[in-house]
Design goal:
alpha+beta; Rossmann fold; Elongation Factor Tu (Ef-tu), domain 3; 2 domains; 8-stranded antiparallel sheet; 7 helices
Length: 331
């Protein structure tokens, strides 16, 4: 009986081994398939890779304005690629040719959008020239379609870049548009952005990885020395005429700035003082009477200047940019 049991057990083991070999043989093609597509991740579809899944949202910004059909044409191209796209706008009122403003408005808004959103930014004074057209994947998982002219400068410094690809216009350009060289916003950027956002193409299919450093705009950084903050007025709150500086809380703390106190404020343009006053550092505009100036912290966490119920820019003829400097010190 012992021999019979031993024989039965050996037969069972042999049978299990045969079943395992059979299963392994049929599993082999699946393993090879996974190796053939190493970028694939669970849940991806055609047009997606492991870079960052797109979400069907396409957001436009430009300096085109809304007085003609340029913006509508870009959106029409996008809808022609996929009527299922969700299309939005940052602004189309960037001052003509102002690349810095385009860079700042992206910096102001991009990270508030869901990961996988595709942005098309067209402020392109070099349209039709040798400048490259690129798609940038940020570390945050957002995509920026734009000329390589410095538009991604602030996002590069604050969010970080994961990868940049040059748009291959042989495959990613609106068909029958090669006769025009002055509307890449429609023919290249809107078309490529829509194809990427709708998963017609994936990020790798945009074109080759860029082989050089992208163009970056030069700008100064704020600092605190000997109890004085030195900064720049880098943009305005255009609707209300407030001045926004590049001075964040990290710099303000170096001179122990605190709301409720007053500070000496001086604004210089090209080295010449154009405004000087002692201003209260307030939590909000209504902390001072209507028409009075104040310091406050804006929605990006930076020191700013306003006139309560007024327009500081118009009242004092102040503007923004690298030639507009500001100093702040304790009273």
């Amino acid at each position: 009986m012992i021999k019979d049991c031993h024989s039965y057990i050996m037969k069972c083991i042999a049978g299990l081994a045969a079943i395992a070999a059979f299963a392994a043989a049929f599993a082999l093609p699946v393993s090879l398939h996974a190796i053939e597509k190493p970028y694939a991740v669970a849940g991806t579809q055609m047009g997606e890779t492991a870079y960052s899944p797109v979400n069907g949202m396409l957001v436009f910004q430009s300096d085109f304005g809304l007085r003609d059909g340029a913006v509508s044409a870009m959106k029409g191209v996008a809808m022609g690629v996929s009527p299922d796209l969700k299309i939005f706008d940052i602004t189309h009122e960037i001052p003509a040719g102002k690349i810095w403003d385009a860079a700042f408005r992206l910096h102001q808004t991009v990270t508030y959008w869901p990961q996988g959103t595709v942005f098309v930014s067209v402020v392109d004074p070099g349209v039709g020239s040798s400048r490259s057209s690129i798609v940038t994947l940020l570390e945050s998982g957002h995509y920026i379609v734009t000329p390589d002219n410095g538009t991604i400068t602030l996002l590069s410094d604050t969010v970080g870049i994961k990868e940049i690809r040059i748009i291959d216009e042989e495959t990613n350009r609106l068909p029958d548009s090669f006769g025009s060289n002055t509307f890449h916003g429609r023919d290249v950027y809107a078309y490529t952005g829509a194809r990427l956002a709708s998963k017609v193409i994936n990020f790798e299919q945009v074109g080759p990885v860029i082989s050089k450093q992208p163009v970056k705009l030069k700008y100064s950084k704020p600092e605190a020395k000997n109890g004085i903050i030195h900064g720049c007025i880098n943009i305005t709150d255009v609707q209300y005429g407030n001045l926004w500086t590049d001075i964040g809380w990290d710099i303000m703390r170096k001179i122990r700035m605190a709301q409720g106190k007053k500070y000496n404020v001086s604004i210089q343009h090209n080295g010449k003082t154009v405004y000087s006053a002692i201003l209260p550092f307030c939590k909000t505009f209504s902390d001072v009477p209507a028409g009075k100036p104040l310091l406050y912290v804006n929605s990006l966490g930076n020191l700013s200047i306003a006139l309560n119920m007024g327009n500081f820019v118009k009242a004092y003829g102040i503007s923004y940019g690298e030639s507009w400097k500001i100093t702040v010190s304790e009273k």
